[in-house]
Write a structure and sequence with these properties.
- This protein has 233 residues and is α/β, with parallel strands linked by helices.
- The protein contains eleven helices and eight strands.
- It folds into two domains: 2-11 and 98-232, 3-Layer(aba) Sandwich (Rossmann fold), CATH 3.40.50; 12-96, DNA polymerase, domain 1.
- A six-stranded parallel β-sheet has the order 5-4-1-6-7-8, with helices on both faces.
- Helix 2 packs across helix 4.
- The longest helix has 15 residues, at 12-26.
- The protein is globular and about 55 Å long.
- InterPro entries: 2-HAD, HAD-like_sf, HAD-SF_hydro_IA, HAD_sf, PGP-like_dom2, S-2-haloacid_dehalogenase.
- Belongs to the HAD-like hydrolase superfamily. S-2-haloalkanoic acid dehalogenase family.
Length: 233
């Protein structure tokens, strides 16, 4: 069982808003933390696309997040000269300190009793490890983009992750709250599980509110997936 993490297992938006709000308050910045968090996240896919397209070599997500943070500060008209490099690096570490959704830890433990579970995330190894330690995520191992040097939804990301485990794609289930992630995994032969996260992007979310493909499992949360997959195994 391979998991997308941002949005599927952890609440990235709530965590980033919290951290940005604290940072702004500490520095006396009168800016909208929610808007800033959304702007920071919106730079995520375009930054990875430059690597997927071959425009730049692979770099880990921490590097992209820091570059995007600086761009978001410029976009918000916030002078970066008022911060030390260490202060910006610490804010960038907010992505390592995200909270799990309320069902995540219980659901992962249910699944781990029967399956090998691991992230198949665009996050880098230290990010996912720190996140797991803080949030209590019981992964059997840490996998994802930095292991295979590719970003989802590059098909090779899924294929190489299965290969690292000594498995065929058909022996894996990709779990995600994002239909496009599952479509990419299904295209190379993985099974699929859709977990509904209707508040990942906040109250105005208008995407991934329901399954749009013939996924093997469609669940309201990871606890439900644990029960369904356990009975089907």
């Amino acid at each position: 069982m391979l998991f997308d993490t941002f949005g599927t297992v952890v609440d990235w938006r709530g965590g980033i808003i919290r951290e940005v709000s604290t940072f702004f308050s500490r520095h006396g910045i009168d800016s909208d933390a929610e808007q800033f968090a959304d702007d920071w996240r919106q730079r995520y896919q375009p930054a990875m696309e430059r690597i997927r397209s071959g425009e730049r070599p692979f770099v880990r997500l921490d590097v992209l997040h820091l570059e995007n943070l600086r761009d978001s500060l410029r976009n918000a008209g916030i002078d970066q000269g008022r911060f030390t490099d260490d202060e910006l690096l610490d804010l960038n570490m907010a992505w390592h300190r995200l909270d799990p959704w309320p069902d995540s830890v219980e659901g992962l433990n249910l699944l781990r009793a029967r399956f090998l579970i691991a992230p198949l995330s665009n996050g880098n190894i230290s990010l996912l490890t720190n996140m797991a330690k803080r949030a209590g995520l019981p992964w059997d191992c840490i996998l994802g983009a930095e292991v295979v040097r590719r970003y989802k939804p590059d098909p090779q990301c899924y294929l190489d992750t299965a290969d690292v485990l000594g498995l065929q794609p058909a022996e894996c289930v990709m779990v995600a709250a994002h239909n496009d992630d599952l479509a990419a995994a299904a295209a190379i032969g993985m099974h699929t599980a859709f977990v509904v996260r209707p508040h990942e992007h906040g109250p105005s979310q208008d995407q991934d509110l329901e399954a749009t493909g013939p996924w093997d499992f469609i669940c309201n949360d990871i606890v439900e997936l644990g029960r369904l997959a356990g009975s089907a195994s």
